[in-house]
C-alpha cells in the first residue's frame, strides 16, 4: 500500500495537487504515463474505445515528437493530454530553471492547457510552487497499478486495481514497454471490473 497509494507525507508535501477527486461519486480517472509509443498506445486506445471510456495521457514530449500521429490519434479519440516533461526528467536531477524549460519544451508539442504530472511523482518544492504560480494544474494519483514492475504479473496489476480503487480514484497505468505485456491481459479485465462495479470514467476539466 505504501507504493500503490500515496503516503500522507506526499499529500502534505503537495497539498494543492490533485490526488483524488470527488469521494461521493462512483467515478474513476484513468491516466496513462510515459507514452505515446506504437507498441502500447494503440492497444490501450482500442481497449478504452471498447468500453466507451476516456482517459488522460500524460505524455513525454520527446515521444510525442517522434510519434506525432499517436498524439493526434489520442486527441482525436476524445482523450485528454497532459505534460510529463520532454525527457521524463527526475525532479531532483536539475535546477528549477532547467526543469521548467524542459516542461515548456514538451508543452510546445503537447498543448495541454497546463495539465502536468511530474515523472516519478516528485519534483521538489521550488518547482512545485513555481509551476502552481505559473498556472499549472498538477495531477498526482490515488492508485499506482505498478504495471511497470518486473516483480509483478498481470494478475498482480489487476489485483491492485481491485484492491485500491475507490470513488474518485485517479488511477495510473503506463503506455510503455515496461507495462504493455501485463496490460494486454490486465487492462481489459480491469475495464470490465470497473463497469461491473458501476464506475464511470471521467477526465480532468
Index terms:
single chain; 205 residues; alpha/beta; TIM Barrel; six-stranded parallel sheet; two-stranded parallel ribbon; 8 helices; 14% strand; globular
Secondary-structure map with pairings?
Layout (H helix, E strand, L loop, with lengths): L7 H6 L13 E7 L7 H10 L5 E4 L1 H6 L1 H9 L3 E4 L12 H15 L4 E2 L8 H9 L3 E2 L4 E2 L9 H11 L5 E5 L5 H17 L3 E2 L4
> What characterizes the major β-sheet?
6 strands, parallel
What string gives the helices and strands in order? HEHEHHEHEHEEHEHE
* CATH 4th-level superfamily: Glycoside hydrolase/deacetylase
Supply Rg.
16 Å
State the distance separating the first and last CA atoms. Answer: 28 Å
Shape: globular
Please tell me the overall pLDDT: 95
CATH first level: Alpha Beta
Number of strands: 8
Give the CATH architecture: Alpha-Beta Barrel
- The structural class is alpha/beta
Give the helix level as a range of percent. 40-55%
Q: How many domain regions?
A: 1
Number of helices: 8
CATH-defined fold name: TIM Barrel
How big a fraction of the residues is strand?
5-15%
Poorly predicted residue ranges: none
Question: In words, what does this structure look like?
Answer:
- With 205 residues, the chain is α/β, with parallel strands linked by helices.
- The protein has one domain: TIM Barrel.
- It contains eight helices and eight strands, in the order αβαβααβαβαββαβαβ.
- The chain has helices at residues 8-13, 41-50, 61-66, 68-76, 96-110, 125-133, 154-164, 180-196, and strands at residues 27-33, 56-59, 80-83, 115-116, 137-138, 143-144, 170-174, 200-201.
- Strand 6, helix 7 (154-164) and strand 7 form a beta-alpha-beta unit.
- It is globular, with a radius of gyration of 16 Å.
- The mean pLDDT is 95.
